[in-house]
Specification:
Order of helices and strands: EEHEEEHEEEEEEHHHHHHHH
Largest sheet: 8 strands, mixed
Distance between the termini: 45 Å
Helix content: 25-40%
Strand content: 25-35%
Length: 335
């Protein structure tokens, strides 16, 4: 399936990729989990090999040898193997993920918006809207969300993070992951118990405070104008670190002669993507940041092959967007 989405449910507007099952906007976390067909469990099962080369039709239990320290993370509903793992892997069940949201939805601080399964069940996500929005000049609206990513994959940590979304273009504005308040990670070597849940809540600051901090950053970026050389170098730092022009008669043109496709798309998106002409974005570092986020979310290679959503939220695209925010602030402070 496109975008590697196995199953998905969404409340509100149809997602940009057009996939998923529409639901009411008042579902509980458990109801959202069920609507997204995520009410299944996983277990770790031992790995076996055979004691000598043998044709499949000749195999029986006497041929099998247990491989010590090797197991498979398996979906119990259909016995699908999701990942190889060792003995220390502790599964986190989908029900535990959505139970984490309950405290906040029941208090009216959040509402469930989307949930789903990526990569044949190996990645699970839930997205809840935080009850705090803001607008920049010209009606440029940003909404705050909490995103949980639970990979049923050994070596990958469960991640809970604050994720602002710019409404006009549906860009996910990933906050830098080196910011202690931006994300919480838990490797699968301990239980997702109450102590861990409490630590996650405290680390994330699940309140208007996190959104307020990002609002201040956005307002600052929207107040600072970029110049041709600085925005060209900003793009180069993200996509072509070896390409840097300190002085040129028209640095944007000079840069564009050497830009790779992704860098060229960002340069175009800064001027032409949805919301580019709004007062807060036109000619500002807020607009430059959103040029990057628009390309990473909607135009990068992978849209057709199915890796777009995963990259934009959890992978290389998310990392580039986080770096773009950090760099945009650095350039704005120096302007």
């Amino acid at each position: 399936m496109a975008h590697e989405i196995e199953t998905m449910a969404y409340a509100g507007a149809v997602p940009w990729h057009g996939l998923g099952v529409p639901v009411e906007d008042n579902l509980t976390p458990t109801e959202m989990m069920q609507a997204a067909d995520l009410d299944w469990t996983v277990s770790t099962r031992p790995a076996y090999t055979i004691n000598e080369p043998v044709h499949r039709e000749g195999m029986d239990e006497s041929n099998l040898i247990y491989v010590e320290g090797h197991n498979f993370i398996t979906r119990d509903s259909d016995n699908k193997i999701l990942s190889h793992c060792g003995d220390d892997y502790i599964p986190v069940q989908n029900e535990q993920i959505f139970d984490f949201f309950k405290k906040f939805t029941e208090a009216g601080h959040m509402t469930m918006e989307t949930a789903g399964s990526l990569k044949s069940g190996s990645e699970i996500w839930g997205l809840a809207k935080i009850a705090a929005d803001f607008k920049l000049a010209g009606g440029d609206e940003v909404k705050g969300y909490l995103l949980i990513n639970q990979p049923h994959v050994a070596g990958k940590a469960m991640v809970i993070k604050f994720t602002p979304i710019r409404v006009v273009c549906n860009n996910t504005l990933t906050v830098a992951l080196n910011d202690g308040g931006a994300a919480f990670r838990m490797p699968h070597i301990r239980e997702f118990d109450m102590d861990v849940r409490t630590a996650a809540e405290e680390a994330l600051g699940l309140s208007k405070a996190r959104q307020q901090e990002f609002q201040e950053q956005a307002e600052f970026l929207a107040s600072k104008q970029y110049t041709g050389d600085t925005v060209a170098n900003f793009i180069a730092e993200l996509y072509q670190k070896d390409l840097f022009i300190e002085k040129a008669k028209d640095p944007q043109i000079v840069m564009r002669e050497k830009f790779v496709r992704s860098a060229e798309m960002v340069m175009t998106a800064i001027d032409q993507s949805p919301g580019a002409t709004l007062k807060a974005a036109k000619g500002t570092w807020w607009g430059a940041l959103n040029g990057v986020t628009f390309v990473e979310d909607h135009q990068r290679k992978g849209q057709e092959t199915g890796n777009a959503m995963h990259s934009a939220w959890f992978g290389a695209g998310a990392n580039r967007k986080a770096k773009a925010l950090t760099k945009a602030i650095e350039y704005a402070e120096a302007s």
